[in-house]
Design brief:
By secondary structure, this protein is α+β, with helices and mostly antiparallel strands. The chain has 2 domains: 94 residues, PmbA/TldD superfamily (PmbA/TldD fold), CATH 3.30.2290; 223 residues, no CATH class. Helix content is 23%, strand content 38%. The strands form 4 sheets. The chain has a 6-stranded antiparallel beta sheet with strand order 3-2-1-4-5-6. It is globular, with a radius of gyration of 24 Å. The protein starts with a helix and ends with a strand.
């Protein structure tokens, strides 16, 4: 408790000093953290890093002007300089008619208790052992000929946020990860690379290093002797690893900042059928041990579990206070921020709800199609929804994956793709954004 009180007292003193210096309102954030990360390759430790430190950020508001200054130095002299710089900047920057803190009656009064911090610290020796086992397992798989290395990390952070409107929040969070990337094949026959990874709030919840190693190796070996395909239109199955990206594109398209600027193809889609009537997309900010879980948003507003898509229909934008004011709507509790930037809209734990069909059933009637395991490049226009990306995967023949395919491009438009999505029943809640296997018909496959 002593550390938490110290952070709270530091922020309270900083805000008081800012108001005494001429700020009409202010908020401040402190982020302290410790982390360990290692990289292990071909039986040797390549990199070991441990870091401890923190930053403090101050935002001051004078009328409709705001300024943000951050620093790693928390001495009294440095904090005084932080206040002076922020106030001086706020007097000269252009006005922003939509900036401002939450009203006191908008601040969440009760917060849920979330299990998002692993109390155990993970040693470098433990991380090295996990990475070694992961890489050794991958290298033992027939066909694997080299390794790009295995990585493991652990980190814990303490965050405190306070504002002159009475908002104060402190919380601890943690995260761990393990990954490996390997190569299969030879220069003569052709080489392929692939990876797998696992991440979790609790270190003990990570998938085993052996499972990650075997998965990465299997993915790389299966890609060998890939063929090129002629251009065609055919059904496409997205592996869960890449289907998550489709959910990410949807979240970007309903971000309040983009909606307010009119730079999203869904800007006029509120309360309309964006997906098929059987599709639901859920956000759950209070999921226990969720990688993006938080008890309220960064402006002190309550956040809740909600259906972003309910039976195919778009129900909400992702709004912070600023974008809500621009759109003349109520905020939705989606503000996130760092020490050096103002709040901005951001989602928490989001998933595309599972369907009823197995992945095998989803592709059983496909005479010819494409199962996508990897995507390359970022050929996406969020203003128009046009979608074009390099893809790697497997050709589907008579309802089953047949042979590996590479050097093709898949193309379509996200508006039409969303309406055509059919989710399978294999959803796993593993990351901040999750999706099951999905099928989309009618996309273009550009090959030779």
């Amino acid at each position: 408790m002593t550390e938490t009180l110290t952070l709270a007292d530091t922020l309270a003193e900083l805000i008081t000093s800012a108001k005494a210096a001429g700020a009409e309102a202010a908020d401040a954030i402190v982020v302290d953290g410790a982390s360990v990360s290692i990289t292990y390759r071909l039986g040797k430790l390549e990199q070991l890093e441990r870091s401890e430190g923190g930053d403090i950020g101050l935002r001051v508001l004078i009328g409709k002007r705001q300024a943000i200054v951050s620093s790693a130095d928390r001495s009294r002299e440095a904090l005084k300089e932080l206040v002076d710089r922020a106030v001086a900047m706020a007097k000269t920057v252009p006005e922003d008619p939509f900036c401002g803190l939450a009203a006191p009656d908008q601040i969440a009064k009760t917060l849920p208790t979330l299990d998002i911090c692993d109390p155990a610290e993970v040693s470098a020796e433990t991380l090295i052992a996990k990475a070694r086992a992961c890489e050794e397992t991958a290298l033992s798989v027939a066909g694997v000929t080299n390794s790009d290395g295995a990585s493991a990390s652990w980190g814990r952070s303490k965050v405190a946020i306070a504002a002159s409107n009475g908002f104060m929040r402190t919380y601890d969070s943690s995260g761990s990860s393990l990954s490996v990337s390997v190569l299969a094949g030879t220069a003569e026959q052709g080489m392929e690379t692939d990876y797998d990874y696992t991440s979790a709030v609790y270190f003990a919840a990570l998938k085993s290093p052996e499972d990650i190693g075997r998965s990465a190796a299997g993915r790389a070996v299966r890609k060998l002797n890939a063929r090129k395909m002629p251009s065609t239109k055919a059904p496409i199955i997205f592996d869960p690893r890449v289907a998550r990206g489709l959910v990410g594109h949807f979240l970007g398209a309903i971000n309040g900042a983009s909606v307010a600027r009119g730079t999203t193809f869904l800007k006029d889609a509120m309360d309309t059928g964006v997906f098929d009537a059987g599709v639901n997309i859920i956000e759950d900010p209070h999921r226990q041990r969720g990688l993006r879980s938080k008890p309220c948003d960064a402006e002190g507003l309550a956040n809740v579990k909600r259906s972003l898509i309910a039976q195919g229909r778009l129900t909400t934008w992702i709004l912070d206070l600023r974008s809500a004011r621009q759109l003349k709507l109520a905020p939705t509790g989606h503000a996130a921020r760092s020490t050096g930037s103002p709040p901005s809209p951001s989602a928490t734990n989001v998933y595309l709800a599972a369907g009823t069909e197995t992945p095998e059933a989803l592709m059983s009637d496909i005479k010819e199609g494409f199962y996508v395991t990897d995507l390359v490049g970022q050929g996406i226009n969020m203003v128009t929804g046009d979608y074009s990306r390099g893809a790697v995967g497997f050709w589907i023949e008579n309802g089953k994956m047949s042979f590996p395919v590479s050097e093709v491009t898949i193309a379509g438009n996200l508006a039409q793709m969303f309406k055509a999505i059919r989710p399978a029943n294999d959803l796993e809640l593993l990351y901040g954004v999750d999706a099951p296997t999905v099928r989309i018909d009618g996309m273009t496959i550009a090959g030779t």
